[in-house]
Structure formats: C-alpha cells, structure tokens
Amino acid sequence: MIFREKFKTLNDVFDIFTEKNIFKLISQGHFAALESPISIGKEANIFTAKKGKDRVIVKIYRLNTCDFNKMYDYLKFDPRYSDTRRSRRQVIFTWVQREYRNLLKSREAGVRVPTPIAVFSNILVLEFIGSDEPAPKLKDLIPENLEKFFDEVILNMKKLFKAGIVHGDLSAFNILNFNDKPVFIDMSQSTTTENPRFQEYLLRDVKNVCNHFRKIGLKLDDDEVYGRIVGK
What we know:
The chain is of the alpha+beta class. The protein has helices at residues 2-6, 16-27, 68-75, 88-108, 146-162, 198-215, 222-230; strands at residues 33-40, 44-51, 54-61, 116-120, 123-127, 165-166, 175-178, 181-184, 191-192. Strand 2 and strand 3 (54-61) form a beta hairpin.
C-alpha cells in the first residue's frame, strides 16, 4: 500500500490494521493524505495531514512496540478506566480514548490544548497548532516574555486542576510555544483528582516546569507555585 511504501522506514507503524484505520478516517473526511512525520517515538508516531486547504495532526499509537504494561499501570489508578482488562489492544485503545477525552475536558475548562477531532482504535486526529510549520516545543524556543509565559502555564495548570484534571507528564517537551503562548499537548497520561496518586503527578509536573524555567532565567519556589495551582 502507498502508506507502507512511503513510510516503510518508520518502524512498522503502518501495519495492515493501522492502514485500514487510516483509510477509514480518510473515508470519513477527517483528512485527505498524510504528510511528513513530526516525531517518531516509542509510543506513537505523529504526522501532519492535509484536509482541504488546512492541516491536521494525526497521532498513531504503535501497536507492537507500545509499553502497554506501563500504560496499564497508569490506567488502573484512574477511576474512569480501572476496569480495563490487561490486554495489549484494549489497553492501547483505551489509552487513545483517554487522551481524546482529556483534551475535550481540558478545552471545556478553557485550557489551551489542541482540539481533538476524531479517534479510532489506535489513531487520534487533532487540530494543527502552528502557522506554516508546527509550533515548536517550549524546550526548543525560549519565550520572549518569560514571566508572562510562565504565568500562563501556571494559569492553565490551575484551570486543569479546577476541572479535576492533572496533566501527569508536563514539561518543556509537552508544552508548545505558539505565538509566545503555551499550548499543552500529550495528555494521554492525564488523570483525575480522584486518582489516589494525583498529588504525586501534580508535584512532578510543578517540579519539571519550574526546573525548566529556572534554567532559562526565573527564580521560582516549587511550593509557592504548587500553592498557586491548588489554591482558590
């Protein structure tokens, strides 16, 4: 098939099952053709795709090499998915559905995240964030106004918390810098504050974010920042 031929070097992401899912999403009008890969990861491969004059992001979770045991360890503590069976495909499909659901809830809370467009088995279609090229990650582009950008990151974390969500994997790798404003991405690990481990995840998010901004020039106290997020 054309996708396998064009991207055959991408670690078998395009198995027959995935190819069928891609064509299903194309037939439903979610996009017309895949373009270039943005990133090739252990968990998922991310592509831009054409949709008329616009573009979308297509995130394809890799069925054969995903660490589904690690995914399951996260899911079993999330009350929404605690009854998930420890089956590779069910865990991966649930993981993708979870990211879609987390993004929807985040947008409802006013958090700057990509709009989720469609989800099907191991594939997630998302709003394209960027202009001609995808927006860079925070790790790759220092904001012009550090304090303002940091304050907006914390405001978005606070909005998430008020909506009962913790990102769970927030860092300079999972925040885009688009027009000097933050956009949170990669929310498959995000969980609810009903999760008994939510505080552990939130503290880790705070530490990762503060460590990055300290490296690029801000003086921050983790405890004070945590208080800003969970306070009224």
